[in-house]
Amino acid sequence: MDFRHLGRSGLIVSRVAYGNWLTRSSSRSEETELACVRAALDAGITTFDTADVYADGLAEESLGRALKGERREGLEILTKVFAPTGPGRNDLGLSRKHIRESIDNSLRRLDTDHVDVYQAHRFDPSTPLEETMEAFADVVHAGKAHYIGVSEWTADQLRRGHALARELRISLISSQPQYSALWRVPEGEIMPACEELGVGQIVWSPLAQGVLTGKYLPGRQWPQESRARDSNDGSPVLAPWLKDDVLARVQQLRPVADGLGLTIAQLSLAWVLQHPNVASAVIGASRPEQIADNAKAAGIRLEADVMAAIDAALGPVVSRDPGATRDSSPTAPDWRLA
């Protein structure tokens, strides 16, 4: 496993991180989660990403149990706050109330006294940014998190949040956008802003929900036990990629990968990790052997001709519109009251 500093911070993360959004979904057992975490540790992965909303809190609980007995100082544990965690009007968003209550609940479920990075899962337009950042500062100054991060914030939101974090003497060090060879949206505005601010990327869906493994073939039925067949396993996020033109283009990566002795998944992960602003890519799995295979992408350096071949194969079906980041978060100030 290779490692890299997260942005310009002192925190070092594994180039491949383990995320349990899908692994600990309603259709996966805790035994699978335990096996996947063990496979991640065996592969040298030290960075683990989760969120309070995943599987209604069960993801944090399972991860906490799976990591029990590991040396806490040798791990980087990241979780998130924003999405609804209860039926109340204040059980969501980035208010002081929700952040202060959510961090304590996450720490209890994770069975730890701190997380390494506490992340805003989305931007909350209904709460003053000053209130949100002051609440995050309270969390850091109380020793419940070392750093803070964000997910799917726009470049402007990042700049405003980063400036407030500096005033409050806390470190906003990470951004977690969706990023893959098919979804290059962050390259337009997010990554340049982060490079300017010293913020690193820990990207999610680097394999486009499994499409960049090459297992989905155009004009064919989806494989048994794949996410495309499981309505509880992220299929709504996967659906936009399951188009014949996209799948046909992904198959054009096969000879490129074969020529390097790689799988399409390893090639696609190596492509993501090639970007200088990407510190780590979060992978999930339904089987532990997938983690061992994908972790091998860390440390692979792709030559310019290989990068050009990937661009040529995928070019017409790549998403690049920076506006897609804005579309992924609530925009109306009264969204919580809807």
TrEMBL record:
GO BP annotation list: methylglyoxal catabolic process
InterPro entries for the chain: K_chnl_volt-dep_bsu_KCNAB-rel, NAD(P)_OxRdtase_dom_sf, NADP_OxRdtase_dom
Keywords attached to this entry: NADP, Oxidoreductase
Classification via CDD domains: Aldo_ket_red_shaker-like
One Pfam family, short name: Aldo_ket_red
The keyword NADP is annotated on this UniProt entry: yes
SUPFAM superfamilies in alphabetical order: NAD(P)-linked oxidoreductase (SSF51430)
GO cellular component terms attached to this protein's record: cytosol
Gene3D superfamilies: NADP-dependent oxidoreductase domain
GO MF term (any one): oxidoreductase activity
Region (Disordered): 317-338
Superkingdom classification of source: Bacteria
Segments forming domain NADP-dependent oxidoreductase: 17-313
Keyword match Oxidoreductase: yes
Family that this chain belongs to: Belongs to the shaker potassium channel beta subunit family.
Protein name per Swiss-Prot or TrEMBL: Aldo-keto reductase
Organism: Streptomyces blastmyceticus
